[in-house]
Write a structure and sequence with these properties.
heterodimer, A: mainly alpha, MetI-like fold, three-stranded antiparallel beta sheet, 11 helices, 69% helix, B: alpha/beta, Rossmann fold, six-stranded mixed beta sheet, 9 helices, binds adenosine-5'-triphosphate, binds magnesium ion
């Protein structure tokens, strides 16, 4: 189109937006760096570098600052060699570079514990669970939602029960799912389906109802009836919004993943995280948590980009 | 101009009279008999239309005019089959109307184009629903887009068009089905004055060149007189036909006729019917007069 005259300003607008988006990530990172690398901001612990005359101190041990000061005073009184140490953060707050290293080793090095899964193995397993859970939920939920949004009789028949059911917390079905589906992936996928499906029907029914009535009426005056009204008008009419709903719902599916993976034999990224936390490898824990975010956010970003080319007529995209 | 010096709106010149004689000899396309419509609402029943009678002849241009809320949209939606009526009959070619159909085209006030389809695909929609092949539908669409002067925009999406262009697509989309009658509910209501007057002339051109009968709703008196052969004047609460006016302004019409005596006489009559003495303004509208609260500095006056 003839937006050429506007191009420079559109361009600089885009650049500003990108910069702000990068900034929104850099800001928290900056805070993390400050807390990690500038000693006087927090650092409530002391990492012992030389035990001196304190018999229970060991090199690398983390002690409270007050305890360290007490012991230093004690050695001075007893004329023993004083211990030495440097300010440190608690073990549960590793510095950025440590997490970055864990990120790398998680993919590149054999895990320290034998039999422990690699980070990418855990991750791949989790992604599969999400994929199947979300696919099954969508295969049922999207058609049901569209039907409920189009035909009020159908909505009145289905929605009260669904409204009720969605208040039942999905994890509560864990034991039941294990009894029925075994201890492996079945119950995990089931939890994701239970967690997503009911919201999905209601949200998509609502989206369907929001389709402009004039559009449907126009189609009817052009001779559209019955199933064709559904396939030729309702579905294409709501498609961009349906796609947006699905993106949001996919995000919710990820939140159910953590619970789902604790059911039966623990597996996937959750198993990896709990394992690493048990051995106090918090750098690995952070790396794993972050990669969930990266995958979730990345998928959404790609899906968002894709929607621009899929739905070139969708005006709401211009407003983002 | 002093209304007393105007001719009566009932006086028709010879050519105008001859034209109405000719129209009255044509077959009736649409007949509405004793039509009534009541809406059931939580606040009780609303009688939107009562005892509506009129008929429209082939290739006649009829405008419906009336104050806001008098049931104009309700009437046209019943004719289109989008709404059921409570009593009376609607006959199209002597057959009762049941639900919407391709024999009645409709153009809405709001933009009712399918946003996910290009201009051409929008126009192809009707033929495809009818079961025509893609090639045939495309050929039809091209013809009608040419007629409304939008062949260059065939591959644009509706959101890329101006308001006037969108309504032209809507007209093409309705006409491609070759309906018996074209129903238009304030189709130019959302357009600016200049676009609007262009669209009016354009609509007359279309109407002259194809075999189509038009029922056109508006609340703009000038628009009604400029376009119509006959004007159906409705009154509100409940919606009833007040008068059917045969417009004495000769054809072909042009914007230059807005100040002719016949035009002004007709307009004076319409004004008399639609905006009678202010005393009869419905109570609820007076009650709706807002109480103004001052939100600016007392000394900060604009008038
Ligand atoms: N679906 C409905 N349910 C209840 N009442 C309705 C409904 N549709 C219209 N009405 C009532 O019927 C009357 C006529 O409405 P309608 O929309 O036909 O008026 P209109 O002449 O088209 O007005 P406008 O010039 O503002 O478009 C109004 O009093 C309105 O409140
Ligand atoms: Mg109306």
């Amino acid at each position: 189109m003839s937006l050429i005259a506007n191009l420079p300003s559109v361009d600089s607008e885009m650049r500003k937006r990108t910069l702000l988006a990068i900034g929104s990530f850099l800001l928290p990172l900056l805070v993390w760096c400050l807390v990690s690398y500038v000693p006087f901001i927090w650092h409530p612990k002391v990492e012992v570098t030389d035990p001196g005359g304190v018999d229970y101190f060991q090199v690398g041990m983390l002690v409270d600052k007050s305890q360290f000061e007490d012991e230093t005073a004690f050695t001075r009184e007893e004329r023993l060699p004083p211990p030495a140490g440097k300010p440190a953060n608690p073990i549960y707050l590793p510095a950025p570079h440590e997490v970055a290293k864990a990120f790398y080793t998680g993919f590149a090095k054999q895990p320290v514990q034998k039999d422990a899964p690699w980070l990418h193995e855990s991750l791949w397993h989790s992604i599969q669970i999400i994929f199947w859970g979300f696919l099954i939920s969508s295969l049922i939920g999207v058609p049901l939602g569209i039907l409920a949004g189009t035909y009020s009789t159908f909505a009145r028949l289905s929605e009260p029960f669904i409204e009720y059911f969605r208040y039942l917390p999905a994890p509560a079905f864990g034991a039941l799912a294990v009894a029925i589906l075994g201890i492996y992936d079945g119950p995990k996928i089931a939890i994701i389906v239970i967690g997503t499906l009911f919201q999905q029907v209601l949200i998509i029914a609502n989206t369907t109802r929001k389709l402009e009535a004039t559009i449907i009426e126009a189609a009817r005056t052009l001779g559209t009836r019955g199933v064709k009204l559904l396939t030729k008008v309702v579905v294409p009419g709501i498609l961009p919004d349906l796609y947006r709903d699905q993106r949001i719902l996919l995000g919710w599916a990820w939140t159910y993943l953590i619970v789902a993976e604790l059911i039966g034999t623990s597996s996937g990224i959750t198993f990896y995280i709990t394992q690493q936390a048990r051995y106090q490898h918090f750098d690995n824990v952070y790396a794993a948590i972050m990669i969930i975010g990266i995958i979730g956010f990345g998928t959404d970003l790609i899906l968002g980009r894709l929607s621009r080319s899929l739905f070139p007529w969708d005006r709401t995209q211009d407003r983002r | 101009m002093n209304p007393n010096t105007l001719p009566s709106y009932l006086d028709q010149s010879e050519p105008v009279k001859a034209r109405f004689d000719k129209i009255n000899q044509r077959e009736t396309i649409l007949e509405v008999r004793d039509l009534g419509k009541r809406f059931r609402t939580p606040q009780g029943e609303v009688e939107a239309l009562r005892g509506i009678n009129f008929s429209v002849r082939r290739r006649e241009f009829v405008c419906v005019i009336g104050p806001s809320g008098c049931g104009k949209s309700t009437l046209i939606r019943i004719l289109a089959g989008l709404e059921n009526h409570s009593s009376g009959d609607v006959l199209l070619d002597d057959k009762p109307v049941k639900g919407p159909g391709q024999d009645r085209g409709m153009v809405f006030q709001g933009y009712s184009l399918f946003p996910w389809l290009t201009v051409k695909q929008n126009v192809m929609f009707g033929p495809k629903i009818k079961g025509h092949g893609k090639d045939e539908a495309e050929r039809d669409a091209r013809t009608w887009l040419e007629l409304v002067g939008l062949e260059k925009f065939a591959d644009a999406y509706p959101h890329q068009l101006s308001g006037g262009m969108r309504q032209r697509v809507a007209i093409a989309r309705a006409l491609v089905n070759q309906p018996r009658i074209l129903l238009m509910d304030e189709p130019f209501g959302a357009l600016d004055a200049q676009t609007r007057s262009k669209m009016q002339s354009h609509l007359i051109d279309i109407w002259k060149n194809i075999d189509i009968t038009v029922l056109f709703i508006t609340h703009d008196l000038d628009e009604a007189i400029y376009l119509a052969d006959r004007i159906l004047v409705l009154k509100a609460h409940p919606g009833e036909v007040q008068e059917v006016i045969e417009v004495p302004v000769p054809r072909p019409r042009s914007p230059g006729q807005f100040n002719t005596p016949e035009f002004l006489a007709t307009k004076a009559r319409l004004e008399q019917l639609i905006h009678p003495a202010p005393a009869s303004e419905p109570e609820d509208e007076q009650a709706a007069q807002p109480q103004m609260i001052r939100f600016t500095n007392v000394a900060d006056n604009v008038e």
